[in-house]
User: Fold these one by one.
Assistant:
Number 1:
Amino acid sequence: MEDGWWSDIREQVREEGSRFIALAENPDPENLPTIGVWQLENNLDAVYVSITHHVENEDVQKPLSMHIVMRTRCISSVPAN
Amino acid sequence: MLYHMALVTTITPEPGAVEMTSRYVLDRDHEIEGGLPENFVTQEICLVCLKPYSAFGSGRWPKGRFFWGVVGNTDMDPGDDKSAHESNFLDYVRRTRMFTSDGVTHLSRTHRMPLPWHEIDDYRQKPFPWISTYIGSWLEVSPPQFSNFCSNDRFEKTVIWCESRDGKYLMGSACDSADFMMQAWACMHNYAGFGAKGVPTLEREWRLKIYFMENDPTRYLERATRDFPGLVSQPYPGGRPGIP
């Protein structure tokens, strides 16, 4: 991977108004998907997970990538005894 | 308000795939009077594929345009270029597939119900509604939350995917526990279940995998079936276990 690949990925998965939680270390980014976790400052009820998978692709100069959005709803709140 | 239960999701990459598992975890030494409830809301994952740099998004999507949660999705700015939205969303639907009794089925060619929350002549209904839900062929009726925009076309495997723009790759999700799936705007939902009923709540697990591979639906299904042996039983010719 060329220099700056990590920062490139980080910038790609960033949304305006977002804050990064973590970008998992990937020992083999050409063969393993890279996982990032972040939230939007205006929606802390949802966790966003970006998964980026690199392939050689003439059509797209950037790594093949996608986003998934994990919306976890509060299902049970139990007050402290 | 203090919360003593957490939904813990583990995301594990492997070559060509990512596995996601979720379990409910109760704080150590904490007990809930009356025991844990039986019916938990399941995990909800929305796979969004329309980022401008993605091989699965439309090439017309403006570079640098953020769209989730602000604009460009369900709450589009009326001043936006509708033709660009149409191009992106419809292009995505046309590249999304599932398995029906006819084999690989293009979602754009399925019967899609008019979206009840838009006027019938709204541009988001044309040339076909931009959102549709689907249920397994083993169900007689749609769950009530989806019934008014559920297709008559039923899937036979809980596997859904999208082709890249150049047709070389696919990205999809698979499980062996869903009864319904949905394509909404530029995302796909595969509603995996939260483990078998009757199993203790804290031992129940939600599991889904996301795949990236060459665009070969047969190989994709083979790999998904290795990961989710329950897919062999679908479409449950003898009836879905747990459903009378």
Note: The two ends of chain B are 40 Å apart (CA to CA).
Number 2:
Amino acid sequence: MTEWIELGPVAAVPRRGARCVTTPGGKIAVFRTAEDQIYAIENRCPHKGGPLAEGIVHGRHVTCPLHNWVFDLSTGEAQGADEGRVRTFPVRVENGLISIAPDVLMQIAAE
Amino acid sequence: MDLLAEFSAPAQATRTEKLVVIGAGMASGRALEHIFEETPGRFEVTLFGSEPRGNYNRLMLSPVLGGEKEYEQIITHDTAWYERHGVKTRFGETITGIDRQRKVVISKAGETPYDRLIIATGSAPFIIPLPGKDLPGVMVFRDLDDVNAMVEAAQRPNPKAVVIGGGLLGLEAAAALRLRGMEVVVLHIMGHVMDRQLDPAAGYLLQRDLEKRGIKVHCTAQTKAILGENCVEAVALDDGTTYGADIVVMAAGIRPETRLAVDAGLHVERGIVVNDQMVTSDPDILALGECVEHERVVYGLVAPLYDQAKVLAKTLAKQDAAFRPVQTATQLKVTGVSVYSAGDFADAEDREEIVLRDAASGIYKRVVLKDNKILGAVLYGETGDGPWFYDMLRKGTDTTELRDTLIFGQAYQGGAALDPMAAVAALPDDAEICGCNGVCKGKITGAITGMGLTDLDRVRAHTKASASCGSCTHLVEKLMAITLGDAYNPAAVKPLCPCTDYDHGAVRRLIVAKGLKSIPEVMQELEWKTSCGCAKCRPALNYYLVAEWPGEYEDDGQSRFINERVHANIQKDGTYSVVPRMWGGMTNPKELRAIADVADKFNIPAVKVTGGQRIDLLGVKKEDLPGVWADLNAAGMMSGAAYAKGLRTVKTCVGSDWCRFGTQDSTGFGIRLEKYLWGAWTPAKLKLAVSGCPRNCAEATCKDIGVICIDSGYDIHFAGAAGLDIKGTELLGHADSEDEALEIIAALTQLYREQGYYLERIYKWAKRVGIDTIKAAVIEDGAKRKQLFDRFAYSQQFAQVDPWEERVNGKDAHEFAAMAEFGFPVAAE
Ligand code: SRM
Ligand SMILES: Cc1cc2nc3c(=O)[nH]c(=O)nc-3n(C[C@H](O)[C@H](O)[C@H](O)COP(=O)(O)OP(=O)(O)OC[C@H]3O[C@@H](n4cnc5c(N)ncnc54)[C@H](O)[C@@H]3O)c2cc1C
Ligand code: SF4
Ligand code: FES
């Protein structure tokens, strides 16, 4: 199996916040909840492209900074009346380090 | 063949084997008990332990440290026990090597052969590699020797301890040292104590209780160094804080003690890897306890280790048994504090949470469910139901039937469903409803029927119930509903957001009445229905706390909208706009040149004059923001706060300096106002204007606050609107001098800061509370105006910090840099 690719320590992402990882195919937003759950999603709101990493994080959700759509970080589904879905990526945390599946980067690069 | 021979025959078939055990800790003690039960007489046991004593109950070291127990009371295996089972004890002897070829263990005293070997070396405390970590006085909390050293230190005059680590162990140490009379500070790197076991809400309650005992808790503490010449004297943090210390207790975590296994070439990852039978990669060597890793998990609590001990004994007895991963439950052993945490309580997909908070008695309970089964539970203040939840969690019990009353605990199950109405109706007439004003139930119901009161405000006016802090409002409302039946039509309370039943007004009132000083505190005391709030309530709460507790409350950036977090306005394409302040709309060639240079240097695509008399640089990349600000700062410009729910602009006209009609120095006064008010956070944005005469070129009569200069002084207007709504201002009053005008305007701003609901512009606030009450406070009542003015002035000390400069100097650096950057992946990788 290929090695997972390390993104950085959990502590580099603020609680109830996010940081971005840049790839040739666009940005991935890495979120950390109040309870230290880590999620990664595409940093592009399906509504009008808002940078989701800049939104307010509450519970397992983020509110888009541009027009307040709310997304579930684990499924990528828009909540409430809004319809849409943002791409999610598998990440894992070990020894306080976040890493992402290598094929994700390959895939994004290929797109 | 004699009888004896016949009986001893089977024993010979399974001749006694030499079993050597390394480590006389909790896991090996329990394992030996099972071994002697399963296979009596089969093994000849030699037990090595580094500590100069036998097995004892390590968990109970906390009460020993606190002086609540003696060491003798926590011994689990005494000399008689070892003798009875023929255990050769070699205490005070550390094993330094294992030779697997020759099957011997090595110690100072020489070699000891084994047929089967058990490694149970536990863990070693993790020492953070800080400067000063080797100074005398730096201690750990793992065994009795550590406890004795700490007890001795506590006997000095005015002893001080700093505990690094606010986890289970660190907090138990802190509480125990406090019991010994030490002054104790706990430094914890995360945002709340016991973050591995508790969610932030319960962490907050725990911190509050510890602080009540006189333990200082400092969260998000980055320890920089331990200071001292010949021994520990103090601990310094990154933020510049230092705490004096006679001892420093490192309780920052533990590492599985695997050195022997690594040297012996066994398979070791984080711990010594064992299979379900507790056998290591060498079939003759078994291992258990904190030093092992099973299915990638290393355990740090005894319950799973006891399971391991059972399995290990069965394996040695050649019986089938398998260790399976278990969920653990934790309780903090600090007398008088009840915390319970079990399982996995993080929020995640498909999970639901049930939260119960009782502010009056400091209770917080949260159960996390998935497919109606309990995954985890956090209990604070009342933990009696912990084992009940834990039991259902372990058994995977379906809770559908119990669902509605689950959170109320076991006692409610099987009984009638809870009806809060019935509970209130059942209260006796002399039950106290309003604690602030001492109003009992009979008085309220009497007033309702006797005086025909049908709305809450009149009940308040006549009985004083719920007229102070308001936390009994829901009880009073229930009494009204019970007494009036259908005739009661509750005034529609518009909750702040779905996380709470309180409206903005109640939340603001209660923050003051109860002295609530942090977001978790508000959420707990006001019984929030979610654990972490939402994008609506968190910014509002953050503002209310900033406004109420200047200098005390620490702003929560993660509860601010992106613009206020990065001090620039986000644009539709994710870039930002930057608007530097131009005091009163005045600028000069130097500023204009700097703006032009910045636009060139950072390839800023658009430069625009705004409707607020200043210049907007649009399309700045986020990572360029600090660079842009540094250059603007260098030219003397600071943030124009074009993004803030706070002071924006003070527009001016040229006034008496140049204009043939100008009556006063409108430009100068505008600049003075802007310099006085900048930095202030307000419920919604705040825009001012000063016009030099009633021709009003600065459009002051559609602003939040507008000044029209006239010969005799200054007419102060307010509550105008020119955005979503159009509305001319109201006249607030007249001032004879600039100083008086400034005092009135600052007092008005402060009153708005204290009463406005989050996102409510001045004109809406004025409409809600009434123009007359505002006039009364800031114009007619001179004393009140002065108080408002003083409060505003006080709060400005903390507010007037240029956020750009702070960030140029490195604050929130993580906001402006990517976490990682990847080019095209190399195929050959
Ligand atoms: C830049 C500017 C337009 C311009 O190019 O001139 C502007 C730009 C924006 N205005 Fe404005 N307003 C600007 C002057 C005004 C004015 C005129 C004034 O201040 O004299 C008004 C009417 C007065 C008022 O404030 O009500 C105005 C009424 C609004 C409103 C409606 C507010 C309301 O309560 O009615 C919004 C929306 C809001 O705040 O929710 C708004 C919101 C915005 C936002 C912040 C939209 C947003 O949320 O992203 C725009 C930010 C663009 C940016 O990045 O700079 N802007 N906006 C002006 C900046 C002034 C400054 O120097 O700070
Ligand atoms: C103060 C305190 C409070 C705790 N409270 C709780 C609690 O409330 N609940 C809970 O579940 N858990 C608690 N724990 C954790 C619990 O004590 C441990 O999980 C448990 O003791 C681990 O058992 P063990 O046998 O693996 O290791 P240990 O009990 O640490 O035993 C290992 C022994 O091996 C010895 N040793 C190591 N290397 C060698 C060597 N080379 N040669 C000879 N001997 C060696 C060590 O000296 C030690 O005596 C607490 C721990 C501490 C320190
Ligand atoms: S109309 Fe405007 S510019 Fe003219 S005097 Fe009055 S304030 Fe000055
Ligand atoms: S772009 Fe995200 S809500 Fe519109």
Note: The pocket of iron/sulfur cluster (ligand 3) is lined by residues B 653-655, 659, 661-662, 666, 691-693, 695, 697 (CB under 6 Å).
